[in-house]
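User: Fold this, then the next.

Assistant: Folding the first:
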Amino acid sequence: MNIREMITKMTLEEKAGLLSGANSWDTEKIERLGLPKITMSDGPHGLRRQDNYENHGMDETASAAQRSGATAVTTRKAVGWPTASALAASFDRELMHELGGVLGEECLANDTQVLLGPGVNIKRSPLCGRNFEYFSEDPYLAGELAAEYVSGLQEKGVSACVKHFAANNQEFRRMTNNSVVDERSLREIYLPAFEAAVKKGGAKSLMCSYNLINGVYACENLWLLTDVLRTEWGFEGIVMTDWGAMDDRVEALKAGLELEMPSSGGLNDQKIVEAVKCGELEEAVLDRAVERLLTWIDWCLQHRKAFPLRLEQDHRKAAEIAEKCAVLLKNEGCTLPLRKEQKVVFLGSYAENPRIQGGGSSHINNYRIDSALSQAAENPNICYCPMFRDEESCGEEEWQTALRAAKEADVAVIFAGLPDTYESEGFDRKHLEMPPVQVRAIREVAAVQPNTVVLLHIGSPVAMPWLDKVKAVLNLYLSGEGAGTAALRLLYGDASPSGRLAETFPLRLEDSPSYPDYGKSKTEAVYREGIYVGYRHYDARKLDVLFPFGFGLSYTSFSMKNLRLNRNSLCQGETVNASVEVTNTGDRTGTETVQLYVGFDGVDRVGRAPRELRGFQKVTLAPGESKTVVIPLDLRAFSYYETRIHDWYAEGGQYSVYVGSSSRDLPLRATITVENRTLPLGGYQRVTLGDLLDKARTPEEEQRIFALGGHLSKRVSDLSGDEDARKMIRSVLDGLPLHSVKSFSRTPEDEIRAVYEEFRDR
């Protein structure tokens, strides 16, 4: 395709029309120029490819279509994979790359060129109704996994569309709410996963979010879509709206948004035409957007090819992946794995009809759903009592039958979790509680059966007031259509749990970072917690949690030792390698996740989390086997975003590198010195004596700066025997602006300014 030549042949109306969808899922085609359409589909954890949608609106239902005489929209069968909350628990880059590739092949088999995913928004609150569709509360983990998913998908020739850009962290009023976020929090928490998907994953497209960001809709946010995304990150793809997210079409075009989805019925296309004709919009801006869009379409068309549909093969792969995402939260007395000869009762309807996905736009018409009960059909020692369904009891007679069966069994396994009505796209949760009937069932079963196991089907954290009453808890998350196969293999030890929590489970909702005002305002979401999201918040406040970030048990045991850094100091452009020896000390083959965190040991002057995840690596070991894991770190791993210079900055000084198996289990520690210049001083009016003292390199320079403080400095030396008084006056000097020094000293202002000039740029 000769793109520039094609643009010269396009009419103004054709250019404008190309920048909005032809319908719900296709781009416009221009037959006279030989430009075909390309087709998109949800979703991140499985293909939601529809047929007969071309002449229907977004809200067209089968019944409405029948009444109108039209052909009903139908959704093709596809494999339902574990949702993002489950996938993130794998902590497995290779697994994500593999999944991206398989999804790409399924797209090709369904003549789909763009897959709308992955979703990488940060889990700011455990209440967000769409958390099941997002990876993590940690931006580094989310970014690493997203980059692999994107690159795996695009290697097959299918464009990823990373979403929702950006600061879309709630469902309540998501289409009009203004996310009020400071620059540092955006850069450190809410943007890095998108940055990694672009820089490391090579994402071809992004989807902007519905919300406003600091007063400007994401779809027309020039700073976000051009300054950050294109200029800083080097993004060369296209940006499309979330479905129905367009606000001002002309301003969005100026800001750097190419494609409006779905079709506006020509209304917004006409606004573009009129804006060009009246001089409000330069046609060169329109041409730039058209060129980007055609380049993207051309890439998709070049990779368009036939591929066989392999639903059965992919179904088996979905079950394998689900196994690697499950998190064993408790296993008292090695209750798990079960033995085939044990008499076991399965309780709860999720054993028969598991909840495997969340509600909303990513909902899959699954090829085939495995249940734990169907997979257990050949084991005569397993019986089943429904007992409850979602939020309702199956009746008193069934309830008592279940309790008797539990009492007579060797082990009771309760299949519990959250119904669709509790978490879905479009609304947020109001609490962390499971349905009361399920809590009652767990308590009453545990009262008659000491060996009670709870198997969870959830998309996000739940409260567990019953935790001390049961022997084991296995969290499957929403693990796709292979959930039943994975559940049975994990319960009976044919697979060993290796998942780790990608989010903190708090003890109470009130402990969560954004609790005071999350979802309260209809107009604004103020991110008052700043960078203190997830474990950063719980660690900084020293709060106990139900389960920490990174936590997960195994059917075997591991040890880590000999943490070593290959250098003692680090400068700009250098890399340090952290190595640690991991050993399987148990009697089963298992997989450990080595987690590396970094913390600053110096005086915290800017507000930094005690520790932050900066590396992780999976390692599978046979009993007694040892391997050395190596994790590289560059200067970014030690940096925070410094708003005074609008860039990443690593303070000079000592840092600790921690290694262990969760954010709260870090037995190994090594230190390294970062050598970096101090920040340039700001304007004279904002600089204090303390700022100058931070620049001093020798005791003589420090004394010279002290002398500027006149009698206040003298009082510090006079109080040599009173340490508390010295600290108090030193604090006063630290905060004393240079322009006020003359009020406490006879030092001439030109001398003060001379010292300032000398030290300013160090």
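Now the next one, as you asked:
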Amino acid sequence: MIAKPYDFLVIGSGCAGLEFALDAAQHGTVAIITKKNKAESNTNYAQGGIASVISSDDSFDQHIEDTLIAGAGLCNPDAVDLIVREGPGIIRELIGRGAEFTSNNGMLDLAREGGHGRNRIIHARDATGREIEMTLLRAVEDNNNITMLEHHFAIEVITEHHLGRDVTRHTENKHCFGAYVLDTNTGRVETILARATLLATGGAGRVYLHTTNPEIATGDGIAMAYRAKARVANMEFIQFHPTTLYTPDSDSFLISEAVRGHGGILKNNDGEAFMSSYDDRAELAPRDIVARAIDDQLKKRGDECVFLDVTHLHEKDLKTNFPTIYSTCLEYGIDITRDQIPVVPAAHYICGGVWTDLDGATTIHGLFAAGEVACTGVHGANRLASNSLLEALVFAKRAAASAAVYIKTAELPDTIPDWDDSGTSETEEWILISHNKKELQQVMWDYVGIVRSDLRLERAFRRTRLLYEEVEGYYKRNAVSVPLCQLRNLIAVSYIIIRSAMMRKESRGLHYSTDYPATSTQARNDTVIG
């Protein structure tokens, strides 16, 4: 069943998707589809804040330099310059929409995080992402040009391939016409047409056994774009957050970068502060350095975790600035004002993704991307803390402006076939899906984690190839479901990560190989798949 086309289709309801929708709604009708409820997104889990030049002792040049240093030589300078200079305007717009950021004596309270040379992190205590998400959601709900479709899962973006034409990665004029979408309440696959489509599906942290990401972070947008023959870049650069609460047999809970920026000290099991022996910046070193330092401590000493000590800081100050962290740790019997916090690294953010230009356009006409799903060139080989929300909002706005121009001449095909599920049945055995998912996550954690080697990558490649063949056969025989599609997407993203890591014969930023420990002066190029 094909409904009336929308002007814009947004896949994902995080800050990038919502910002795009609000801007695009000035030019036409917008549908937002989200596979859970509208407020469930990676944005909600962003604790630290949004980086922007606000203080008089800061400058655009300083923020740009900090970002380029963190990116280890692979940032696109034009993209970095763009987001930094548009940052203050983004903050003013959010405040104008009602966002309430933490202030001090009437001025925005500016925190500092690893890699930043100045205090420039605007935050809402330790729940900044949620504050931004709720602010944008309120604006979306008040906009009559925007339709929100909850519990809708995008299966595939529609291109000429679905019209029976041969589409390869070398086909120059590929177009996106919308998406096939599963309504999880009815079980029916709908065809949603749109003149322009935005991927804002977030990241893919769930390819790993330990991650700060929610269950929804299964790489759907990256996998869909890859299957549609879009270009994907720099997927070997996976950021592992150095400090997540160590709680065996439960999901990782992020202990914000801001806690170290506030004065937290990392110590090993003997109470030794170890970061200064790895980097002169100690606790304020970029995340990749801190994560590898912790990993090194754990492997050398055989410990299960290290500790983040904030007991020397003022009790009231901790409770005021980190209420979510304080209350969550307390649930596990840890009073951070008196007890050290046990922490371990966990997969946190993908610096690569679907390649876009400076207007958020992918290599498929009519398909745009913004947020963690996209590779805009801002982050390079390592993301500077709190640049992610800034990048998502800036590029969402630019994508909306570009898409508004695109739809003026965009044409949709006269006919598009309905989703074909002939020959499939409802005979899924959920244990097969859950087992394969666990196996994939374990393989990725063991072989494609913080430290890699040729041998580990080759093993991961072989094992994921077997999983791919098994799951593809299963997919063709069974009716689509969210768990099955998510597993398929996780396998696709894992394959791209492994392939990308195998192609990079050096260590740079977030990619560290024991076989190629040095950074090559000849390898300052993006890793492109497709």
